[in-house]
Every structure is written in structure tokens, then in C-alpha cells.
Amino acid sequence: MGRYHACSAHPLWVRPFQGSIKDFMAHSSFLRQWDLVCSNRWKVPLEQTTYLLGWLSGCIVLGLACDRFGRRATFVFSLVLALPLGIGVALALNYVMLLSLRLLLGAMLAGTFLSLYVARLELCDPPHRLMVVMVAGFFWVAGELLLPGLAVLCRQWRLLQGALTLTLALLATCWGCPSLFPESPRWLLATRQLEKGRKGLRALAEGNGVSLEDEFYSQEHLLAELESEGAPLPHYHTLCEVFSTRVIWKNSLILGFTAFIGSGIQHCFTRNLAPYLPQFHFSYFLLATLEAVACLFLCVTVNRVGRRPILLLCTILTGIASLLLLALTQYLLDWIILILSVLGIAYSQAVTMLSIFFASEVLPTVVRGGGLGLIMAASFVGKAAGPIMDIQNNRGFFLHHVVFASFAILSVLSIMLLPESKGRGLPESLQDGESQRRPPLFRSSRHRDQLPLLSPRSAGHAAEAQDYARLVTATKKMLSSHRHTPLRDRQLLLEPTPGGDPQQEI
Asked: Does the keyword Transmembrane helix apply (predicted)?
């Protein structure tokens, strides 16, 4: 530790660090540059909390901007501001300046991530939505795994911050080349921007080699329903309208709750890894690898089984691992504690990722940006639990563990109220979102035709078939005549049919 004495030891060095290698290099340099030790060591987790607060605020504010100004416009705006802010962080002169710039940088990165996530999802057909999102998750993990090598090459945290900011400049090519990041035609049509939507559809069709001369793909056929109402002005929806709905608000609340639990409960598991993984780099690579394992697990299972069953399974396993560690840590062997902690981290990461993906499928297009931003913000609230506990020197950790373990069990009951979105198209309007219904928990193995006009009888299928034949015959006779009196209708119903009793009424 160099010139620092024993009181300088920060929890950063004795437990897995909650953050990226970039944060680690920055914090280690911050400790030397601004003497953030002893009585000032609480400023280190405060900086982490401020950065997560920036992501939280960016998800909310720029999520609303996605629904009002478009996915592409929000992406370009966030990216253009993120570049100078990243350079400003590398040139920060003091701790207060660093906090302010990191807060704003986190907000802009959140806008970039959210707009990319929504646009990517809206350009995919139902069979490929999950795979495209998970492939993007693998790229995220690959970046985390490559970051230590970049940190070793840069050595200084300012150089590392500058190098990472320059990588964002590669995304700036999307500004000058709209074909790399087109505006979502789905959002344009949902907000009644017909001319822009038509151009977007034509560009996508030409890029995919689809002939627009075909009658099915003609403009008149594709936009006839919207154009029949004239030339409507663009119609935008606000997130406040979601609070007046029932199904959309319920789904958003449940998925935000599960995303919050999945992120917040990870601190309970990572703290249990501290005695067994004292090396920082090993624990960092373990957390990144478990994130990749969670992505792979979702790729293999979600499209086969469904969104709701896998989310339910991961939440149950996360809750069980948390409860076992909460109640039996002092009685369990070390290797069992290690296994439970590793499994808990993997399943909790799967819960967070699947909750966000599930929410993007059940939220309507007109409010998808703002709604998904709120759910991501809930996940960052849970993720901030770790740094907040460090500010208090981990006082109250047992209560934190009890609360999140209880929430995990409670969320199991709420997940059963969610609909299933596997293989279904994305809802476009608020009415589409309200029409979603949850499937039955247990499906019947036999498929029976329930006839509402006939009560089941014990005489068997022969009696049911005879009654149904008499009903069809009587109905045909009633429809064949143009005018009937009530008395004539009753006589028609009482006429005998082949094999029936002339005196028996229906």
C-alpha cells in the first residue's frame, strides 16, 4: 500500500469489487492522488453510487426522450455528449469535479445503451429477438474480459479513461451514416409519422431484397388502414398514460420489482465470496464469466420453454440460494458456501437480464422507451445497494440480506401474473398492451370442445351428438324462412328429426 498505514485498507482490497476494471484502476489511482483513505475512504463508494445514479437518471429521462423524439435521435444526442464528458473525466482536477462529470457521463451512457437496446429489439422478428439481444450481451461480456488488458497497457487511469472514450467515437459513424442505425419504422408508424415510416420500410425492404411491386407489400395495402383516416398529425404518448392502464402497469411493476431484486441481491452473494477469492482479478473474471454463463443459459432455455417459466425458475433458485446462505452459513462447509454464492450470482444475473428483455416485449411501442427506462432504473437502484452498504462500512448487511431474500420469495408469486410473449408480435398501442392475458399455470392434457348451449349429460357421446344434430336441423329451418311468428318458431323446433323423439323438446 506504499505510504499508507493499516487504517488505509479499504474494503475494495478485501472483497470482490462491485464495478468494472476501469472503476478499479480509477479508484486505485484516486486513493493515491486525492488521499481517499482513513476518514475519507467513504468517498470511494460515494463515487460508485454517483455513477450509478447517473445511469438511473439517464434511463428515466432519455427513455422518455426515446418515445418523444425517436430512438436514433436519442442515441445520437447521448453519444455526442458522452464524448466530451468522457474526456472531461480524464482531465478532472478534483474530487467534486470528478463526481459531477461521472454523474453526467453515466446518464449519457444510459441513453446510448437504452436507445440501442430498444431499436435493436424493434428491428427483429419474434423468432430472432432473444438471440439478437443475447448476442449483444456476449459482446458486453467480451468487452469486460478485454478491459484488464487495456488497463495494463494504459497503466494510468487518465489514459485508460481517454482510451475508452475514444472507442465511443467509433459509434459516431452512425450519425453520418443513417443506414447503420436507422430510425425504427415500428415507432414511426405507431406514432402516425406515415411519410417517414414509409421511407423507413422502403429502405429496409430494399436492403433485404424484398420487392415492393408485389401487391401485398404495396404502399396502399400496407398503410391503407392508417391513411383511411386522412393525414393525421404525429401522436405521442407520455409515460403518465401507463399509470391509467391496468395490465401494462401491472406487468411493468412486476418486472421492475424482479429486476430490482436480481441486481440488489447480487451484493449478498459477492460478499460471501470475499474469504475464498482474495485476488481481485480472479474475482473480477469470475463475475464476468458468470454473466456469460447466464446469457448462454437464457439462449438455450427461454425460446424453448418460455419467458415466464424461466424467469420463475431463476427467481426460485436465487431465493433458495439466498435463504440457505442467510440461515445456514455458519453450519455449511466452505465449498458449499462457495457453490451457493456462485450459483446465486449466475441466477440473479439471469433474473435481471430476462426481466429487462421480458419487459421490452410486453411494453407497447408507443411507451417502450420510457417504460423500459423505468425498469432499468429499478435495476440500478438494486445495484447501488453494494456501494451504499460500503459507505456505512457494511453495517446492516444482515438486514439487507433478509429484505432481499424475502423480496425474492415474494416475487415468485407475482411472476405468475405475467403474460407469455414467446413467439408473439410486439404490442404497438396501449390497447394492444392491455389485451395481453396470462396463460394458465397448468395446461390440460386433454382438449375438449365445450358447447355452451348443451349441458353435459351422463348418457354419453351418442346423446350429445343426437341433441347437437337436432339443434343444427332446427336452426337451419329457422334461418330458411324469411318471416316467422313465435308460434311457428316453436312448431319448427318441435318437428321430429330422423332418429329423434317427436314429443321431446330440445
From this structure: yes
